[in-house]
Design goal:
The chain is α/β, with parallel strands linked by helices and 652 residues long. Strands 1, 2, 3, 4, 5, 6 and 22 form a seven-stranded antiparallel sheet that branches. It has a five-stranded parallel sheet with strand order 9-8-7-10-21. Helix 4 (102-118) packs antiparallel against helix 6 (129-148) and helix 8 crosses helix 24 (629-636). The two termini are 25 Å apart.
């Protein structure tokens, strides 16, 4: 039985007043139920309607509170939204204060339609949908309030201003806002918005996997906004200014609590950045002799130039982070040591540094020409000598495999084969990387899987593979590849680079303060708070999630900074208000089709210029070139500004 009394969302109406029903249109919100432990959701109001879960909620006061937020978020650049939302907010306030009139209802309806039909951005287009839906289905409540003329008590509300692209971003960057600043030529302000959460803007502007772009509603008209490269543009333009702006603003008291971070990768450095801004003393213990983790040791320079990464990391060290290089957890420092040294909290962010084996015959012989993918890229990025062969086989379908294949070409390998057991459509690698690798000459062998290494006199001379076909879906939802009997074939080669995944080395976690390890071989931590089984020990990034993306690791660093701060101030860690609101947002967004009906379709996105294949395959210089100011302006202007305003009424 549903706990929804009445709902109207995206023209779907669910009426449960007096009639039972099975969960239907709003099943995700129904399953959510509570806003926080023991705090029930009474109603929600947002960009496409309203849903009531408690008949006692005051919908008129709720509409008043909602329109106050809407009016405050209007950018003021078009008259319908700027003036219309102000008029609507004033009318709803009058009615809620017992001073409304019959004429107000007709005015409210006409203004709502004007704002919806005449506003220039998506915030305006959706701003009045909830109020118009209320008038359509509950006009009697408004008339009764006007007749009674009583002041209505204010309810308990939680509000959130977000957008589909914001919610898709693991760090929840305010993407429309920083794009709006780019459109206005206010680059400093744009970068400030990014750096509220993301200290590695230039890095993300090059290697982010663009969750935001896949959620961009502009893609329902033509192409998604080129969000990633707009971030790169503004961060590259303002990078020097960023160094000067951030450092002086951080003040850390000599007696501030000390926080230890294990690992100077994206998760650890992001956590350090935010903890420093909160006033904590931060010390980082890093196994290698430079910061950056897999961003420095696993991403080749042609995608992420080392000087770009180092410049942004220098900002964090300039803020006061002390980094102890050459300190391996379990060998040079232990969790017990850190506790004994007086650190108030520890964040374990050791990444997933071990490559996964293929599990085929000949692999354990470690023949000449065999290079595990993560080790291969580490050697490439550290400029260590590599005895390259004439022909290489890379195994895998992710971004690491793409990096290995393209790096091998740049090292002088004449022919690079990439073997993947599924089809091109199932490849987890960024589609841009798949295209660029093929353009550079990488030859793909889809629906194939290695079965053994062909070895002669301790050297690889080939790899035997078997043809695959797709069977029933596996646990991930993808169709399971099944070997075709008798279809073996050999690819001659003198190099084999497996890049099929990475593992976490948890052998360094030992002793009294060692957190629990999951059955997947990762550090067990609460997905929302990043707390572990040990008080004061937190963990996040690839060592918890398994190998993921740079932006997801950074999001873990951002999230854990709030958890550590709350733990040190309050002695406990709870879900943030923002995350609770995001859970409601996601529940609503899953239940809607979210169509886009706008003029201006057909304006294709501005793509980043690239060096030609002939220019780029012989060196590790950066492949992609930046947007020009003119192109950045044109691309920023394509943003629909799809802000969504969400209001949740709860029990006190």
């Amino acid at each position: 039985m549903s706990n929804i009394v009445f709902g109207c969302w995206e023209d779907h109406v669910l009426d449960n007043r007096g009639n039972g029903h099975e969960p239907g249109e709003f099943k995700n919100l129904e399953q959510l139920g509570e806003f926080d432990t023991g705090v029930r959701i009474r109603a929600v109001m947002g960009w496409d309607g309203f849903i009531v879960m408690d008949e006692g909620v005051d919908l008129i006061d709720m509409a008043r509170a909602y329109m106050d937020v809407v009016q405050g978020e209007s950018c003021g650049k078009c008259v319908p939204c700027r003036m219309g939302t102000r008029v609507a907010a004033d009318i709803l306030t009058r009615i809620a204060d017992g001073k409304g009139s019959e004429d107000d209802l007709e005015t409210l309806r006409r203004v709502g339609q004007l704002v919806r039909d005449g506003s220039m951005c998506e915030l305006g287009h959706t701003a009045m949908n909830a109020v118009l839906a209320l008038l359509d289905h509950h006009e009697d409540l408004f008339r009764e309030a006007i007749v009674r003329g009583e002041h209505r008590p204010r309810g308990t509300y939680h509000t959130k201003v977000t957008a589909p692209c914001i919610e898709a971003c693991p760090e929840r960057l305010d993407i429309p806002r920083y794009i709006e600043f780019i459109k206005s030529g206010r680059y400093t302000e744009s970068l400030e918005v990014i750096q509220e959460k993301n200290p590695l803007a230039s890095v993300c502007g090059r290697v982010c996997v663009r969750f935001c772009e896949f959620a961009c509603r502009r893609g329902k008209l033509d192409d998604p906004v080129n969000i990633k490269h707009l971030k790169r543009f503004v961060s590259d333009v303002e990078r020097d200014a960023a160094v000067k702006r951030i450092e002086p603003h951080v003040t850390i008291a000599p007696d501030a609590p000390r926080v230890a971070i294990i690992g100077a990768g994206p998760a650890g450095m992001t956590a350090a950045y935010h903890l420093l801004r909160k006033g904590y003393r931060v010390e980082i213990f890093e196994a290698f002799d430079e910061p950056g983790g897999m961003a420095a040791l696993g991403i080749p320079d042609y995608r992420l130039p080392r000087e770009v990464l180092r410049t942004e990391l220098d900002i964090i060290t300039g803020m006061g982070a002390a980094i102890h290089y050459g300190h391996v957890l379990g060998r040079d420092v232990t969790l017990e040591d850190l506790k004994a040294q007086g650190f108030s909290a520890v964040f374990v962010a050791i990444g997933a540094q071990l490559g996964s084996k293929l599990g085929i015959a000949g692999e354990d012989e470690n023949p000449i020409g065999y290079f595990p993918g993560v080790e291969f890229l580490r050697k490439v990025n550290r400029n260590e000598p590599i005895a390259v062969g004439h022909e290489a086989v890379v195994v895998g379908g992710g971004n690491v495999a793409m990096d290995c294949a393209r790096s091998a070409l740049r090292l002088g390998v004449a022919k690079v084969h990439l073997v993947y057991r599924r089809t091109r459509d199932e490849m987890p690698a960024d589609k841009v990387e798949v295209h660029d690798a093929e353009e550079e000459g990488v030859e793909y062998h889809f629906l194939a899987n290695p079965t053994r290494l062909v070895i002669e006199e301790s050297r690889i001379t080939g790899v035997e593979c078997v043809r695959m076909e797709l069977g029933a879906p596996d646990a991930s939802g993808r169709r399971r590849p099944v070997a075709v009997e008798g279809s073996e074939f050999v690819i001659p080669c003198d190099m084999v680079i497996p890049a099929i995944g990475q593992k976490v080395d948890t052998s360094c976690l030992d002793g009294e303060y060692a957190p629990e390890v999951s059955r997947w071989g990762t550090v067990a931590a609460n997905a929302e708070t990043l707390t572990t089984s040990v008080d004061g020990i937190f963990a996040g990034g690839d060592c918890v999630s398994g190998p993921a993306t740079l932006i997801e690791a950074m999001a873990a660093g951002f999230r854990v900074s709030h958890s550590i701060d709350q733990y040190l101030r309050e002695g406990q860690v709870t879900l943030t208000e923002d995350e609770r609101m995001s859970r409601v947002f996601r529940a609503l967004a899953k239940d809607e089709a979210d169509a886009v009906d706008r003029l201006g379709a057909g304006e294709q996105r501005v793509e980043l210029p690239m060096r030609t294949v002939a220019e780029r395959v012989d060196d590790f210089d950066e492949v992609e070139m930046g947007l020009s100011p003119e192109d950045a302006l044109l691309e920023a202007d394509r943003c629909l500004r799809c802000y969504r305003i969400l209001l949740v009424a709860t029990e006190e």
